[in-house]
């Protein structure tokens, strides 16, 4: 008993010294698992789970879950156009911005579909389904071939057509000179 | 003076005098006290029933009201604090219903001690109160339309901004509790809405002045403002001020989430696309008189709002002659950094057609641009950060309309506003 009290006292003492207020519950990796299950994916591929998918499989899912909002082949209406019908230019109206002409990272597609799509029943797909949808959209946009399989390793390596157009806002660059785009 | 002109003058004076008399008789209406007891004490106050028309504006062309925006009715408000129910709203997947007993905020990633905070934990920690504006990056989007939209109102021009006093725990305290590792230069903040909205914030900014807010003008946040907890990131675009905050992942690189790539990035006139356009540039708008209103000749106090994401409002100037001359307006009420500021300007309107404008300068010397200056820097197909001077044309009949100048013939072809889901605020 004394040992437990001493250990607890030591723990609280260390805790207070470390944090300051000793408020907030320390978490274990196991407890964080449910958060990792909805990963925040980064351009390096960090956060991407295991799995893979190809465009043909993706089209089957797309036709069922996505076409109602984004058009039979990603042409948009009533919601955003996903498949570009022209390269980016200053004359391109915003409703024609799409994956193939405006999105700078392929990893964003996986992240956003996984966390926010379909609109009314999001974050319910398994990783393979998300990879397949990403593969379908990349293929429709002419970024990969129709038979290319997409997985964590290949997704991070895909160079998007719009990426060279992007830069860090010059003002932000002044305020935070260390910031670079991935 | 001859006899004839004297008589004419006398007749005119009499006519004017009798007109005033007639007007006085017509306008006279006694206002007696209530004949009996009024409404008894109520546990919560509600607006006067006759004020029910003062509501947020929602475009009727949105494909879904679960994404899109509701504009604060700035054309009908005064002061620098927006009433909580009228604060502008922008959602990406509707407003979640969150039981405060279930609420948890997790801080993990590149930290010494991953931590989970309850709402009570956050409220126990040291708090700060700050008056800040929050402005959607899409505010002013209607200004990109060409030719300018004649029926524009102040609300539809710049109503995606609001001001409030926010109470919360400085994010710095939470970051220090968790102990951010040196390589943890980015905070990836995630909301608990259906879109699990994610934005990346430099840890440097998080340590400087970001609030983890749980109160708005003294009461709990409204659900549409992030109940129970949101980030307030002073001076920066609204979409980075993550609502319904559920976790912060400390990372070595930004997420480049959808909200910082396909949306909320800005096209420059040279064709480059800028990412991380965070700071909201200097803005001002005359809210009274403004589009859709009607005025009579005589005295008017021109009123408006000014603000800047760079800091404090230094000066607002008003022109009542279409920009030919400018005079300094008076700032009334608190002038605070990253807060809405109210300006007023006394004006006698003689009844002739004219154009009213305001422009502001902030304490860092940034000047609000004209429409032409603005469109020299930003592409015509850009969607965000429109902060050009708004002009209001007062017609001879007293009707006020959008007075923005159309671009010269031969300028880039008009960009069609709207057309796609989440990015159309006002179709």
TrEMBL record, chain A:
Pfam families assigned: Cytochrom_C (PF00034)
Domain Cytochrome c: 53-141
Keywords: Heme, Iron, Metal-binding
UniProt GO MF annotations: electron transfer activity; heme binding; metal ion binding
Protein name as annotated: Cytochrome c
InterPro entries, alphabetized: Cyt_c-like_dom, Cyt_c-like_dom_sf, Cytochrome_c-type_DH
Species this chain originates from: Oceanithermus profundus
TrEMBL record, chain B:
GO molecular-function terms, A-Z: heme binding; molybdenum ion binding; molybdopterin cofactor binding; sulfite dehydrogenase activity; sulfite oxidase activity
Keywords: Metal-binding, Molybdenum, Oxidoreductase, Signal
Pfam families linked to this entry: Mo-co_dimer (PF03404), Oxidored_molyb (PF00174)
Cofactor: Mo-molybdopterin
One BP annotation, GO: sulfur compound metabolic process
Domain of life: Bacteria
EC numbers: 1.8.2.1
Residue ranges constituting the Moybdenum cofactor oxidoreductase dimerisation domain according to the UniProt record: 277-390
Natural source organism: Oceanithermus profundus
Signal peptide bounds: 1-24
Residue span, Oxidoreductase molybdopterin-binding domain: 92-255
Name of protein: Sulfite dehydrogenase
InterPro entries registered for this protein in UniProt: Ig_E-set, MoCF_OxRdtse_dimer, Mopterin_OxRdtase_euk, OxRdtase_Mopterin-bd_dom, OxRdtase_Mopterin-bd_sf, Sulfite_DH_SoxC
